[in-house]
Write the structure tokens for this entry.
Amino acid sequence: MRILVVGGGGREHAIVRKLKESPRVTALYCAPGNGGIAADATCVPIRATEVERLAQWAAEEKMDYVVVAPDDPLCMGLVDELQKRGVPAFGPDRAAARIEGSKVFAKDLMKRYGIPTASYRAFDDAQAALAYVRGLKTPVAVKADGLALGKGVILCRTAAQAEEAVNDMMCKDRFGASGRRVVVEEWLEGPEVSVLCLTDGRTLVPLASAMDHKRALDGDQGLNTGGMGVIAPNPFYTEAIARQCMSEIFLPTVRAMQSEGCPFRGCLYFGLMLTAQGPKVIEYNCRFGDPEAQAVLPLLQGDLLEAMLAVTRGELDQVPLSVKPGASCCVIAASGGYPEHYETGKPISGLEQAQQTAQVFHAGTRREGGALLTAGGRVLGVTATAPTLSQAVSQAYEAARHISFEGMHMRSDIGARALRALG
Ligand code: AMP
Ligand code: GLY
């Protein structure tokens, strides 16, 4: 089969590598891909958000199947455009992608169907939002309704901070159209877990649970980033909690989407907070997480292409899939200054040595002549899998030690909290 993967980061590299294992793949393309993906697939120079061009290219070049990985093209309706042209695709259609594309949609869905989440109020009027937060005594999260590159959430400890956040979003247009509606919600405490699930709209198969490390610096200090590293499975996510999530959160969400007339087919990502009152949903994503996919896909036992095709056909219950025993750890090497200003174009060295004990997924790289250069904030994801988490963490850092480029920044404590929990 001729397959196109849409996207060009570490997540897409992990998907491409896993798809390559499938005997049915005869040709693999990635748009736009990156300097590392180019070694595993043919890169096509079309950006992930050029929906029309991508759909047209896929039809003209006779792709048998397209995997749409990033949130933007999913929310823009790339899957619908492909379907119109007779090209089957993995990922939710535009209506189902609203579960990530609109926080108001997601929160209202959870409220209507009794799915546990932080209590909240949604506003499209700035004055009403300001009046509401003015008297608040408890910490709250103020969230832009639409997509904002993971940066549309402001945690506010005081009413004054909440007022400022509402003002920034609704009056000063800090997140553009995404922030014209906001959700103000209760602040939740507890360990966070990401659970990526494949679902065909009826059957749901969870992959290994994961723990992302979102802050830029050790000890969960510094700014929020797209993710500086991941471990899987997440030791806080016990079997009992997994069963509870399946019956109280995962299946109710799948059924809710069906009842709303927009069944979700693709990878549904549950961002959960394990609170003292039980697990609650912080966010849904309509796609594989990044960097979660870089830690979770290497632990998937089974043929990813067959599983994806079954999701599209509505036959996920026919495909044998399981989670491999053992653990994985992905450490991100980022450009100095990320997530704020950073420079690119720095030569990268040491990949060959690193690849002897780990998989290196490329997030932001490009090739120029013979050289591999940095081309983004997150540059590489170094993933090791091993029988225990402690071994996976040491192996990932051992491999990452060989890699260098000017200004390179890694957290040195990925997995530390999980290891403390394991005792
Ligand atoms: P989101 O983009 O909704 O995933 O939020 C980004 C991050 O903010 C989450 O991963 C959490 O760490 C944090 N967060 C979001 N909502 C809440 C909340 N209600 N209470 C505490 N932390 C939150
Ligand atoms: N790692 C969080 C996300 O993909 O949204």
User: Anything to note?
Assistant: The two ends are 47 Å apart (CA to CA).
